[in-house]
Amino acid sequence: MAYHIVVLPGDGIGPDVTRAAVQVLEHALKGQSVEIVMSEHLIGGKALDTYGVPLPDVTLEALHKADAVLLGAVGGPKWDVGPGHLRPEAGLLALRKTLGVYANMRPVKAFSELLDASPLRREIAQRVDLLIVRELTGGAYFGKRERGSDAHGMQFAYDTMFYSENEIRRVLITAFDAARLRRKKLTSVDKANVLDSSRLWREIVQDVSSHYPDVEVEHQLVDSCAMNLVTHPQSFDVLVTENLFGDILSDEAAVLTGSIGMLPSASLGQGIGLYEPIHGSAPDIAGKGIANPLGAILSVALLLRYSLHVDDAATRVEQAVAKAIAHGARTKDLARGQDDVVTTDQMTERVLAHY
Ligand code: NAI
Ligand code: MG
């Protein structure tokens, strides 16, 4: 039986890094007993241009048969039009909701050869090794929202950070399970001094933690957590938080390793996994062939591990990336001074050469 993989390159640098990821995926499966069938579809800005919607029916239909989804990135200035228009990002949110992928896993680990690219001092940067588990299908990005104006013509807008007990519990279970496989420490991040949704979140953490007596639990408020991530990143193992806080903290954590272009993610939940680099469509470098494909390539490693269950191939992809870096390959975002700068395609070749 073959696994169906839906490939959604998207916009900007999305197609460049996705091409790299697909090449590595095909290479990694040579000689494996696992077979895949890939089909490519539109999402985001390109889907808006073609179908008038960011997640068209043809793409949705393909998702019904999918075992995993590999995504590039969506969005760009072309589609940044005023209020009342559909945006490419709406396609991504709808995709996550449709797939029911409520847990976004973002491993953040320093590569020893890239420490000079980190904004942190070497001795702090080298100890960065954490996993962010971000709730992905609830909170302010999906809650009730409205724009309007009152009787005096004064405009208003609101978004609601809504969470049900079930939405909180299921992502916490994913995070506790992950902590068990790591250093057995879980930091839950909220704003319980202000928000009711955070107070409920904290109560459920207490409840779920009773089933994981071997996992050490701590609570941090999101503002001080943002500070601790740069001052004491080594104090984190698994960090679990709601959608909006996780969006912000994971970009912050990402740069600790040197470049946002390095980091992969897996979004898991009700069966199908969604795999994507954490960066966006990077319009400032789109079309130049210089995007760092490693976040997308490392997302393939997560796809091999979580959806295709070929752990050895996943590990080999990760090792090939580490070796390419160790041998000096640097895309522009990673380069410092006199480094040997490679293009997206050259970086991919270097990774394949070390597989
Ligand atoms: P971004 O992540 O696209 O770019 C931020 C900065 O990082 C830019 O300077 C960019 O050149 C650089 N960068 C990002 N990925 C890189 C890579 N692989 N290699 C080298 N440099 C890289 O975030 P930004 O600029 O805030 O958003 C651009 C567009 O992407 C917006 O339309 C935004 O809504 C969308 N976006 C989409 C996401 C997704 O599809 N998952 C996630 C974040 C943003
Ligand atoms: Mg983000």
Overall description:
- With 355 residues, the protein is α/β, with parallel strands linked by helices.
- It has two domains: 203 residues, Isopropylmalate Dehydrogenase (3-Layer(aba) Sandwich); 127 residues, Isopropylmalate Dehydrogenase (3-Layer(aba) Sandwich), CATH 3.40.718.
- The protein is 39% helix and 20% strand.
- It has twelve helices and twelve strands.
- The strands form two sheets. A ten-stranded mixed sheet has the order 2-1-3-12-11-4-5-10-8-9, with helices on both faces.
- Helix 8 packs parallel to helix 9.
- The longest helix is centred in the N-terminal third of the chain and has 16 residues.
- The two termini are 26 Å apart.
- The relative contact order is 0.16.
- The model has no long low-confidence stretch (mean pLDDT 95).
- It binds 1,4-dihydronicotinamide adenine dinucleotide (NAI) and magnesium ion.
CATH class of the largest domain: Alpha Beta
* Form type: globular
Q: Which structural class do the helices and strands define?
A: alpha/beta
The CATH architecture of the largest domain is 3-Layer(aba) Sandwich
Give the spatial strand order of the biggest sheet: 2-1-3-12-11-4-5-10-8-9
Small-molecule binders here are: 1,4-dihydronicotinamide adenine dinucleotide, magnesium ion
* Rg from alpha-carbon coordinates: 20 Å
CATH superfamily of the largest domain: Isopropylmalate Dehydrogenase
